[in-house]
Amino acid sequence: MFPIKSPKLIFTFISFFSFCLSALESEGQYVPAQHRIPAAGEIPVSESGSYGIPGATYVLVNDIKDIKSTLFLGKDITLDLNGYTVTYADGNYGHVLNYGFEEGLTGWDISKAPGARIENTEEVHTFIGDRLLRMKAGDEITSSYIYLPVAGRSYFAMCGVTGNYYNEMGGDLNKDMRVSIYVDDEQGNEIRCITTYGDSTRVSCPIINRSTRLGGGFIFAHLNKLPAGKYRIRVKAENECLVDEIDIRPAMDVGIGIVEKTHPMGHYDHLYNRNHSAFFDYTADVSSGKPFKGIPVAEGAGTVTIKNGIIRNATIGILSWGIQSTARNVRIIMDNLKIISSGINTIAVDVPQASITNCTFDIRSPFIINRHGSEFYAVDLQGEQASEVSFCEFYGGQGCLCFKGKFSAIHHNYFVNRQTVTNHYSVMAMGDGSKIFENRFEPEIGSGIEIFRHRNIDIFNNEFHIKAAPPSCEYNDHYSTNAIRIADYGAATGSPEGSYGNRIYNNKFHITGRKFEKYPDYIPMASAFFYSASAGDNEIFGNGIIINQDNPGTDAEAFAFYIGNARGGRIYNNNIIANVTPIWVACSYGRAEHTKLTGNSITRAEYTVRNFKPVRMGSLEQPDYIAVGTEFRSNELTGLEFVVDETDQHHSYSVFWILKINLYDQKSRVLSGTEIKIMDRNGKEIVSQRTDNYGSLRVELPEYFADGNEKTVST
Fold first, then answer.
1. Starting at the edge strand that comes first in sequence, how are the strands of the sheet with 566-567 ordered?
2. Minimal CA–CA distance to 378: which of 411, 425, 330, 433?
3. d(CA 515, CA 523)
4. Across-strand partners of 196?
5. Residues 171, 568: Cα–Cα separation, whole Å
6. Which strand (E) or helix (H) includes residue 8?
7. CATH 2.60.120.260 in the chain, residue ranges
8. Residue-wise pLDDT tens digits, 565-576
9. Which residues pair with 445 in a beta bridge?
10. Is the pLDDT assigned to residue 7 strictly greater than 60?
């Protein structure tokens, strides 16, 4: 941390600290409720099951649990957990011995895997834990037996696969790692499951010759309708692979379910293609999504209120939900809940729309099946109706919150992301016209907010603490963590797939860059803003940004603005304090066209170790990663001069400064209405204006225009 002694910087830092305190005071969280006796007319609940009388208030009178899913609710009811705990997947489920290879090869039969060897993730490929297993093509490993105690239900026989790095495959995803998964019964006979889903009938076990999506993930075989008993998993490498977390786990359980229709999907190919799954094991008719008899059907508009207690997953599982709803027009109201879960794709909430207040979400999910798409955050709000999330705490998840409802409000929350997969930001903002304000973002690892192909979202009065991250499973050479990213992947101007009309203002950012000695060839980057939008202007203004590079002089990067694959953008009146170059236009992500940076204050942090230039321009990674038509207008610099550190590519940009004149006569009287003419260096008149009532004239003048190697000086 660099010391700050000047009065101006002390004031800035005090303001920032005051903002932190106000943010801390405004956050809410779950508070344990005192048990009470149900009032007259309220219905006591003492066991798992279905509860759906319209207008009823149900009150728990003890902790309840179930070996699978615990409660199903109808619409227009209230469920008061009354300080008790709802536990799901409480079937005394075990795990494959040493499923994560942290104890080497203990418990594994490698007699058919001559190429198998344990390796360290830190040295070979970032994934889960400290160790993983390398397998050569044709190797087949077999686990010890595991007892599956509940008959007939869904289990996933799962295998984590790191996948190859994109550059190692030369961009050919067909060269990615591929495995096959088999399951044997206690007699050593191979299990074969033919499963009917909502779209087709498929072989769900074994799963043959499958890869993950880019960035690694999990491949699984779906077991169902099997008797209880002992089973084991076999994994065959179809090419050279790195595998981990090989296990058989209960799947597709919910703590509390609200059903309009079931979504009977659950094959690996469904998850690979991002098909939604819900209530598979409770489906009576897969073609219609009709649930089992006795489960309430929540059709039409209505509400369900759930409050005052804990919802807990009893096992480290795969693909489960604390609360899940498929009722498209039912608003789920959650207040004073704590939801705890762990495993792969084990999340707290998956509902169309919700009002969520004073809740705590603690989700320990070290990875997910498929990182692509906007699903499997700790809380997924998937519908287009507005949601509100306020006064909550989020810990963990692969991303904390994804919302898609237009005109939603996300405010006064605390987000502690534990992101290990690409693009699962603390908040994925996908609701046009929404507002995100008065939140605090402090990821253990990962990024803040992403706006991807959405519009007219206001982000204001938030606080961000973002640190550079170590290599990820997908990126081992260069990886970024960002407070805010706006992206649309080069969308055409005005495109409905574009990100534009978004406004980000009055936020506070503390960005920390660092170099990781363990990874000398890796370039970590942290930024306040990663701007890669092209379809129209977004406005970024009035923000306070502190950039502290812990290891200046290394190739580690930290920026206020990281701009690439971008067109347009208005960045103005931001206050930046930095000890390294804070702005990169046309960065290593791509070219930048017609970006305007106006009235920003850039201050060299006191006790900065190395000199730096305020702006970096261009990247030699590709010939066209250049700046085109960038405008630098009247930015204020303290402790350094305005200099552009540009590559020798053909950039074009212009530099302007504000000239202010106060005109008085010899007796110090204001000369209002007096004409002033200003000429350029060639004598050409460029301004002819009169002073205002105070004898002042304020005008912005060009200093120079740069076009490749040519620089045209105007003043």
1. 566-567, 592-593, 627-628
2. 425
3. 7
4. 201
5. 29
6. helix 7-26
7. 109-250
8. 999 999 999 999
9. 418
10. no
- Count of alpha carbons within 13 Å of 91, Cβ hemisphere only? 24
Backbone angles phi, psi at 12, to 5 degrees: -60, -45
pTM for the structure as a whole: 0.94
Instruction: Say how far apart CA 646 and CA 673 lie, in whole Å.
Output: 43
DSSP track, 565-629: SEE--EEES-EEEESS--EEES-TT--EES-EEES-EEEEPTT-SS---SEEE--TTSTT--EES
Strand partners, 87: 65, 312
Instruction: Indicate the helix (H) or strand (E) that contains 254.
Output: strand 254-258
**Fold for domain 109-250?**
Jelly Rolls (2.60.120)
Instruction: Give residue 25's pLDDT.
Output: 46
DSSP code at position 143 = P
Residue range(s) in the chain whose domain bears CATH number 2.160.20: 254-656
What is the rounded distance in angstroms from the CA atom of residue 272 to the CA atom of residue 205?
Answer: 16
Task: Calculate the dihedral angle through the C-alpha atoms of 365, 369, 374, 379, rounding to the nearest 10 degrees.
Answer: -30
Please check whether residue 472 is in contact with residue 126, taking contact to mean a CB–CB distance below 8 angstroms.
yes
Confidence category of residue 683, pLDDT binned at 50, 70, 90: confident
Look at residue 373 in the predicted model and tell me its pLDDT.
86
Token match 């799963």: residue?
A: 207
Rounded-to-integer distance, Cα 582 and Cα 579, Å: 8
Quote the pLDDT of residue 684: 87
Q: In sequence order, what DSSP letters do the residues of 232-248 get, joined into one string?
A: EEEEEESSSEEEEEEEE
Written as six digits, the tokens of 537 are 């202007």
What is the rounded distance in angstroms from the CA atom of residue 230 to the CA atom of residue 455? 53
| Look-up of token digits 């779950």 | 30
Amino acid letter, residue 93: Y
Distance from the Cα of residue 221 to its chain's centroid:
27
Per-residue pLDDT, 24: 44
CA-based nearest residue to 439, from 351, 499, 507, 498: 507
Separation between Cα atoms, residue 118 and residue 62, nearest integer Å: 47
DSSP string, 434-476: -EEES-EE--SBS--EEEES----EEES-EEEEE-----SS-S
Q: Residue 211 is encoded by which pair of tokens? A: 């890869």
pLDDT (0 to 100) of residue 679: 87
User: Yes or no: is domain 254-656 CATH 2.160.20?
Assistant: yes
